[in-house]
Write a structure and sequence with these properties.
Layout (H helix, E strand, L loop, with lengths): L1 E2 L20 H7 L3 H4 L3 E5 L6 H14 L4 E5 H13 L3 H9 L3 E7 L6 H14 L4 E6 L6 H5 L2 H13 L1 E5 L5 H10 L1
Parallel strand pairs: 2-5, 2-6, 3-4, 4-5
Antiparallel strand pairs: 1-3
Length: about 190
């Protein structure tokens, strides 16, 4: 999904009672999008079903409403696109498109392990975006398990160094909303 502008006046909502571990004041402050002007990053961490994608879509929509260029993708889809672009000798064009965004949202990092070349290409994009734009990443893994995704301690360390230099971390720990809803419907 690429978003450049939406109709003004749309409201973003999230029931913070469902996810009490989420820092409401920080999240509301991030919805003002000042972090994008400062080229800061956001990392949303927590188990599946805790609302990480929902929150980041809301933050992306808020950025669109401010007229910012936003691109949303999953980590697996982005790596696939990068590898395909490399094979077709269009990698630089795709990298330029990605780094021209004010906000790049990469969802579901850690759900699918990356190949060595995929991890290196993703690192390169994040490196190119560093201090040029903002990145939001969602992951179900704590930082100490990211090496399993990237396959290299050195690459993971360099990536985390860039991402966490100017970062806001949203911790979303709790029970899966979908699982809770499913249990409720079965009763």
């Amino acid at each position: 999904m690429v978003c450049k502008q939406t109709t003004a006046g749309q409201r973003i909502s999230f029931d913070f009672k469902i996810m009490p571990s989420l820092n409401k004041p920080l999240t509301m402050d991030l919805a003002r999008c000042d972090y994008v002007d400062r080229k800061e990053n956001i990392i949303a961490l927590g188990p599946s079903g805790t609302g990480k994608t929902h929150i980041t879509l809301g933050l992306g929509l808020a950025a669109c409403q401010r007229g910012l260029k936003v691109r949303f993708t999953t980590a697996a889809a982005l790596v696939h696109d990068l590898i395909e672009a490399q094979d077709e000798r269009k990698l630089q064009r795709l990298q330029k498109q990605l780094t021209s965004q004010n906000l790049l949202i990469i969802d579901e990092l850690g759900f699918v392990p990356l190949s060595k070349s995929g991890a290196e290409l993703l690192f390169e994009v994040i490196s190119q975006c560093y201090e040029r734009g903002s990145i939001i990443i969602t992951s179900n893994l704590p930082f100490d398990e990211w090496t399993e995704v990237f396959g290299s301690e050195r690459l993971t360390g360099a990536l985390l160094d860039r991402l966490t230099h100017h970062v806001h971390i949203l911790e979303m720990n709790g029970e899966s909303y979908r699982l809770k809803h499913s249990r409720k419907n079965r009763q």
